[in-house]
Amino acid sequence: MKDEMNSPDGAATSERRERNPIGAVSRLLSVLVDSATGSVGVRELSRTLGAPPSSVQRTLDAASATGLVAQNASGSWQLGWEFFRLSALGQRQHPYAEARALLERLQDETGETAVLTVYDRYRGERMFVESVASKFSIRFVPELLTWTHVRRCVVARDTRLSP
Q1: What is the largest CA-CA distance in the chain?
Q2: Contact, 142 vs 124, CB < 8 A?
Q3: I need a labelling partner for 111 at 20 to 30 A (CA). Which of 70, 71, 91, 135 fits?
């Protein structure tokens, strides 16, 4: 069934998009968040999302009614104030903040960058949510709060560390 719902490149089919309005809004918001200019027109959203302009417009209208997106003076769409309010409230909860102390300890003991990721099985991607960078000049510094296709994780144990 998974193959019926996803194209070979992993994108959801339009049939699935039409049945999942929350997924459609989520994909729309992701495009707006990733936009270099901060606003995007319906045609560009349609091309990016691989959906008909009429479907994109319906999704924009629904998201606009709740304040998640807003139309600017030029007619392009941008993130709305409700999106920013929800983001700020979510940031206050910061569910992975407790891991920071453990990451700092791990970085102190190993000298290497310590990273916490979460995996979204529906996206098939990981997101770097917290990291403590190595003090070495050559180090891995992930871009936080972005989804990535990292498929493998290396976990090592230094015998010098306490159990």
Answers
A1: 61
A2: no
A3: 91
Task: Answer yes or no: are the C-beta atoms of 78 and 38 closer than 8 Å.
Answer: yes
Domain 2-91 has CATH 1.10.10.10: yes
Helix (H, G, I), strand (E, B) or coil at 118: strand
63-76 confidence digits (pLDDT tens)? 999 999 999 999 99
Best CA proximity match to 64, nearest among 48, 82, 42, 47: 82
114, amino acid identity: A
Q: How far apart are CA 35 and CA 29, in angstroms?
A: 10
Q: Residues 49, 36, 47, CA angle at the centre, nearest 5°?
A: 20
Exposure string for 144-154, b = 16+ CB within 10 A, e = fewer: eeeeeeeeeee
Local structure of 82: helix, strand or coil: helix
Place of tokens 């200019």: 37
Domain coordinates in residue numbering, the chain = 2-91, 94-148
Side-chain half-sphere CA neighbours of 36 within 13 A = 1
Q: In angstroms, rounded to a whole number, what is the distance separating the alpha carbons of residues 80 and 63?
A: 9
Residue with the bigger pLDDT between 148 and 15: it is 148
Assessment of whether the complete model's pTM goes beyond 0.85: no
